[in-house]
């Protein structure tokens, strides 16, 4: 049976993960061997933000109790889940791309030992400017996020780095080439 690759995209909030994933998704729309997983989040949908599925706390608890999440974690007062559908896609040989959590990476690797961590790296200056432009956090929260990003170190076991300080197309093409390589199946539908 074919087995796809799980690409676990991580990086600090404001590093451009969502923009890069949207870019790659649009460029790979005609590649049936690549699937982008939605996250289930206890946060309302934002038109400019991540394309996620908003759940209430009660809905999240119900899905968790039913065993519908392949992964789940909490961060910054929100809860995040990745649906079990990724297991079906991986079994069919699809490359699956997901927006992960730096703190959950070790647990994700325990469940998916072959996952490829994709670290979206960005300079502190660019990160700070992006967080300010986003307008979700105050100056104290932004400073804390920038400091936290500088402290994180990713071990290199199965990890790729995408530098996202320049034009979106530059880093976007790097991500597209990485996740779109060697499709294992003709179709994951």
Task: Supply database-style keywords.
5-stranded parallel beta sheet, globular, alpha/beta, 9 strands, 189 residues
Please provide a written account of the structure.
The protein starts with 5 loop residues before the first strand and ends in a 10-residue tail after the last helix. The protein has 189 residues and is α/β, with parallel strands linked by helices. β5 and β6 form a beta hairpin. The model has no long low-confidence stretch (mean pLDDT 88). It has one domain (6-179): Rossmann fold (3-Layer(aba) Sandwich). The strands form two sheets. The chain has a five-stranded parallel sheet, with helices on both faces. Strands 4-3-6-5 form a four-stranded mixed sheet. It has seven helices and nine strands, in the order βαβββαββαβαβααβα.
CATH level-four homologous superfamily name: P-loop containing nucleotide triphosphate hydrolases
Mean pLDDT: 88
What percentage of the residues does DSSP assign to strands (E)?
15-25%
User: In which order are the strands of the major sheet placed?
Assistant: 2-7-1-8-9
Q: From the alpha carbons, calculate the radius of gyration and give it in angstroms.
A: 16 Å
| Approximate helicity band | 25-40%
